[in-house]
Amino acid sequence: MRSLKIEDYNRFTSVCDPQISPDGKRVAFVTIKPEIQENNYKARIWVINLDNGEIELTTNGPMDTWPRWSQDGKKLLFLSRRTMKEGEPGNELWIQQLNGGEPRLIIKSRNGIMQPSWNPDNRHILYKSTVIRGELDQEARLIDKIPIWFDGIGFTHHINTHLFQIDIYSNEIEQLTSGDINIVEAKYSNDGKKIAYAATTNYMEPRKQYLHIINLETKETIKLKHMGMGIGPLTWCPHGKRIIFRGNDYKRGYPTHECIWQINIETEELENLTGKTGYQTNHSIYYDLRGPYQVPQPPIIENEEIYFTQTRGGRHNIYKINMKTREIKEVITGDFVIENFQVKGNKIVYTKVTEKTPAEIYMWEDGLEKKLTSFNDEILREVKVQGHERFQFKASDGADIEGWIMKPTEYKEGEKYPTIIFIHGGPKSTFGYAFMFEHQICAANGYVVVYANIRGSGGYSEEFADIRGKYGERDYQDIMEMIEYITREYNYIDEEKMGVTGISYGGYMTNWIITQTNKFKAAVSLNGISCWLAEFGTTDIGFHFVPDQIGGDWWSNREEWIKRSPITHANKVQTPILIIHSMEDYRCYLDQALLFYTALKYLGKEAKLLLFTSGSHVFSRSGKPNHRIKRLKHMLEWFNQHLKQKP
Length: 647
Prior knowledge:
CATH superfamily of the largest domain: TolB, C-terminal domain
CATH architecture of the largest domain: 6 Propeller
Structural class: alpha+beta
Helix content: 10-25%
Radius of gyration: 25 Å
Number of helices: 11
Shape: globular
Strand content: 35-45%
Strand order of the largest sheet: 31-32-34-33-35-36-37-38
Largest sheet: 8 strands, mixed
CATH topology of the largest domain: Neuraminidase
């Protein structure tokens, strides 16, 4: 076996979005793989027979995603761009008959088709699409609301997201919602006569959504009277009297855990079903082989039990709650991450990731696990993949901090190695038991890799996640105390050759750290933050994220905003830094990188700026394959220059 190479990234396949057929005999899923020559991805849909494992259907792409079964199990809808040119906006809705034949194009939309789902009548399909308000002048935009854009989309000030229904036989389209609102989630009732949807009704409060019910027979829409809250994927109870959904009441601001909630449609009573566990239901664990396609996981009801996932430390596993007794039990748990899953009878089909293996499709039946796919087995047999060792230390204030350390691929006993500390984004993201190509490639190039869930991380208590008003304090202390711990416990770490890197909040912390200490000999900051005022004023979530996280606003708490901005302390930097940013990042805008880089050069510091002319905030995870490879090459070159070369 050989060591991993950066170019091997193009050989890995992302396997995702398993969907069990209504009769429980088949599973449809999606594969995403980089296409080197086109500098893009190829997405295909597969259907496997769960009894014999045989492949019954494969689509050719080039971008086929979102397979969903009709209630009778005879058809699959899916999204694609089969007849569209490169750069042409929008996508298409197709239907594939399972008894053979070519798929049929149902609708092509420049405004996009999002999250289509079948009506139980097998004839109608519900979907979301954007609607442009008024006339749009592409050369001179007159704007009257915030945010003006959204990461991964572009300008959004002129559009709303609404619900549509299409008849697949007549191709008649009906717009079901209108006005200055944005639909975030929608679902047909089990009898197909109603639709529940969640909508944002005030653009100044984008975290607050409200549930509505459309009666398709009377065309009447009712808004349920409940507090505004974040509402994620939802589902109807079998009797149609309650709606179960992933939700967040933000009672503690952004650090608040998302939980499984239910609302009684008749009494409008809300109940948090999983809050008592103290853990979050949203997936926040880093896994960098997903590519550009991710699917939100809804709660699933089967046999009077609600199945859901939770992040607990570095794990993301499946649990269930009894709808009558409210008892919560483990279903599939262990040192791994489950991305998506489906339940039908006694079968659970899911994608599972470990720190050494990318996602594949598995089936759990009668207490036994069976692996159904092996798309990545060939490359895994060829290259060396490193495992990691979990560690835990007690911080100076008594909190337990969980982390992992990975030895170099060609580790030799008695030698010391340069070390790279990784910091995740969020801050409420999480490191854990998931394959990270970025970590593996650093280990393959002779580095010790260390990553931990410092204060602010998800996967633990809300108190642990809550660093509001304390950025650069407790989180910074955790990192520095972790350095003391690992250099004491692991004698193969070369304490004089340490680097630090992170993306988003991790980029902020990288910027902050090098203004506070010269412990690190090299730093790489990716799509990070250097100035909180700029983050507030130029980004998609800044106007509500920054006041929540830093506290107050520029006019009431200016000193704190200034004090906690790395740009304020740029004159103290002694660590050479490579700043990487993408020019279409609307989550942490380009000015963050330019401000810090310009200040450092003006002050005579060693700094370089690597700008990617396209790509969103998470281009390092979902951007063009060539961009992802170039980013890794530049990172390694920078660390090699400062951590490996002799002075």
